[in-house]
Amino acid sequence: MLTKRQNLMETIKGGNPDRFVNQYEFMELILEAPMDLPLAPGPGMTITNKWGVTFTWPEGQIGSFPVHDDEHKVLKDITKWKEVVKAPSVYYTDEEWAAAIAHANSVDRTDKFVTAFCAPGIFEMTHHLMGIEDALMGLYEEPELMKELIDYVVEYELAYAEQVIKHIHPDALFHHDDWGSQISTLISPAMFEEFYLPAYKKVYGYWKENGVELIVHHSDSYAATFVPFMIEMGIDIWQGAMTTNNIPELIKKYGGKISFMGDIDSGVVDHPSWSQEEIAKYVEIACKRCGKLYFIPNLSQGLNISSFPGVYEATSEAIDKMSKEMF
């Protein structure tokens, strides 16, 4: 039986996997690494990160998002970004790194990838600071200033990457940046190519030049038209790929250059009245239409969790059953 790491590599290289890669099983996420932002405020909580962005998680909702009223928006005028936007330090004490180092050192790297985590992404950071409307308008109205701001975020990411690599020597990177809605990207392919492709080539190139073997990018959205750019920037696995992207068609067109992790939409199966039967139905559909190679069945959620207790585990169980049936 192949190890989780071996099975992943057989799957994404078009080899001979002996089962489906089961969701996040191949990544050991080192979430203890110090960051400028806790992963999220808890339900009912409001926090402000070191960039000055305020996040809130309203009671009864399934997640948090930045607050962009006039009182809380960090950057109200792109022409003043250099005066307003101040990146936090990427330097943390040995004590702050201790838990992450201990976790990384405990991992059997022949079985799993020690995986660094990075969020929010470059596009997300711009609209966290400005609000989505201002960030998108800035691309049209002040393109050179937006490029300067993007470069500033990139330099921060590179500086943080240097510290992560130094302390935990990751084999993989799991990086977030949502680029679309369920049915469309938020910006055109031409605009993405101009503003964000160069940024990501620089960031992902740095990680790969410094020992990272695997780049996994999360975008639980429509982004099919960006796949050629994902390949160019060095992404190995697109995680969060929703059914609206037509994953079987993307596998047929791009398999061997990039792999796809998803095709089980969290919004469809991860709800308060979920059932094992419903999850099994959608897992079977995904596995049978996407096949054994260049595909990892997975909820579209951006971590190895679910919004409602038990859904992630039930999905893993259904994937194991499909492995027994199809391999």
From TrEMBL:
<dbReference type="Pfam" id="PF01208">
    <property type="entry name" value="URO-D"/>
</dbReference>
<dbReference type="InterPro" id="IPR000257">
    <property type="entry name" value="Uroporphyrinogen_deCOase"/>
</dbReference>
<dbReference type="InterPro" id="IPR038071">
    <property type="entry name" value="UROD/MetE-like_sf"/>
</dbReference>
<dbReference type="GO" id="GO:0004853">
    <property type="term" value="F:uroporphyrinogen decarboxylase activity"/>
</dbReference>
<protein>
    <submittedName>
        <fullName>Uroporphyrinogen-III decarboxylase</fullName>
    </submittedName>
</protein>
<dbReference type="GO" id="GO:0006779">
    <property type="term" value="P:porphyrin-containing compound biosynthetic process"/>
</dbReference>
<feature type="domain" description="Uroporphyrinogen decarboxylase (URO-D)">
    <location>
        <begin position="48"/>
        <end position="319"/>
    </location>
</feature>
<dbReference type="InterPro" id="IPR052024">
    <property type="entry name" value="Methanogen_methyltrans"/>
</dbReference>
